[in-house]
Design brief:
alpha+beta
Length: about 375
Amino acid sequence: MISRKLCAVGISSILAASSAFAACCYFAAKDKDVNQPAQKAFITWDAENKTEAFTVQPKFEGNAADFGMVIPTPTRPKLNEMPREFFKELAVFTILEPMDLSKYKQMRFLSRSGAGGGVLFDAMARKVTVLEAGVVGSLDYKIIRAEDAGDLFAWLKDNGYAYSGDEATLDFYIKKKWFFTTMKIDPTQMKKRADGSYEGEVTPTRFTFTSEKPVYPLKITQLSVKDQTEALFYVQAPTKMDLPGDFSYEPNFCPMWQQAIGFAIPEKVTPQEKAWLEHIKGNQDLAKALLRAGPKAATLEWAKKITANDIGVISGEKPYNREAPKEDVEKIKQLKGIVKEGQWVTKFRRSFGKGEMTDDLEIVPAHVGEKADEIEYFSILPTSPP
């Protein structure tokens, strides 16, 4: 009964959160507003080849009848269209499985508190070069290089757009010699609200590029955020991944997991779990991080090293053991070839205040102190948040 109830709660909250946006900034016609209420990204990191890919599905809301977006990457990206419902099916795949009632003691009440070929743009912008132009899904895009923020800023203005930030933000990426991908969006193809404004999502797009480390361009998104934005990350990598420093989810996850192990039948606790429990007990780094981060620490929602059985679930050859609409379960086949056996998929969430979005985010291996965190979290625990 406990597991069914929790699964039902989980699917509703996860699917509700699946409409979001990531890694870019909107620019719109003067005196028009376009906002991004949230962000999400599926990031794949190939440590051996120093290759990163992130998939975004822009969501927008606002009154601009014609606008675009700017997405910076450290090197020239390759763009690919992704399945329309990619993020929805990723959410279904990462629903927590029912609680292992053979491992945790049966109790009438369990605390649910859980701690937490270049072409010039135009004669004026002589230092802005179009490296590639094309269409991905329903979006027209251009990949460009700029040597001067003023030139890029001027081009946007001369084409009838008022960039929603200032030259300094563009210059932040230009000085790092990053590339920019611009995309045009026609919101009239989307849903029109009663007040005449628009809201909707467009084709999910994957950007693949080389990088010395996995990075998420957070700073540029600051310009399209009013007060704060909720960011949801799915990261596929050789190890369990996390946000750095005080952004880490460990101050939330470790106390919740430690409390859950207290409900476990001793004989069911694995050697790996016993070793991790001893490591985090009284760990001063963790205690200090908990005090610093408080309620603003990230939240781990799912973490698992993908097995052959998981791939079988995606392909439909193995049973799906969670509660979700049948049609959505059937569609998780869209993840075939994208989610890889032997890789970790880590899902975590954090809200960022506008004042925190002053730099880009590095995605780092999960650890507490000097020890790597290799604890999976794919089944409901007695202390999992509802």
